Target: ATP-binding protein
Amino acid sequence: MTDRLEAILTARGLDPTATAAPPPPEEPVSAVELADRRIPARYRGALADHPQITAWATQIARAGRPGPGGAPGICEGGSLLIVGPTGTGKTHQAYGAIRTLLHQGVRLRWEATTSADLHARLRPRTGHDSERELQMLARCPLLLLDDLGAAKTSEWTEELTYRLINHRYEHLLPTLITTNLPTAELRTTLGDRVASRLAEMTERIILTGPDRRREDPA
Ligand SMILES: Nc1ncnc2c1ncn2[C@@H]1O[C@H](COP(=O)(O)OP(=O)(O)OP(=O)(O)O)[C@@H](O)[C@H]1O
Ligand SMILES: [Mg+2]
Model:
């Protein structure tokens, strides 16, 4: 240390011979724990117990090529369209699917957004590269697009949804989509080009039953 620096530190009441404190030891964190931290608290314990969803997860896990650490990575695969009225557990099953893959040891980069948040995130604004964010979501190995068709639409949102879905369609990227809308309404809301691609790329899973949020616990 130079004399000048030593003098400055001493003048400020700092000990020039002191070394920086070592960082506190970190607990080892598993991939599942790391992923769980990004999952909204309500769905952090979600289990995908629907047979079509567990079958999808098994298929995706099997198709994964081994990554750098030897664990299978996610690659091309089918997508799911989870359809049903409000409160039937669509988002629960979708996060459950992500958790199932992680528990099966699949190395997984994933993103989740509702369509309303997607529109807000990608709205052009100064100092924000919306195009880059769209590309990030479009190329992400696994994407959860929650509540598709529930947000207010415009020509701009239609184009955005088309570009996102079309990229995932063309590259066979696994996508978990949830919606309240039946097929005919999905077509009117999202446009025929998006609906047509969804029909080909997704397996439909229909959830029925009462609104679980209003279920009488008694
Ligand atoms: N299989 C399940 N086991 C336990 N709780 C569940 C299950 N499925 C859903 N729930 C709970 O029921 C509530 C509604 O579920 P969820 O949010 O997934 O519904 P949704 O179909 O996505 O509704 P919306 O269409 O309004 O978004 C949540 O509190 C969720 O944690
Ligand atoms: Mg939901």
Notes: The chain has a mean pLDDT of 88.
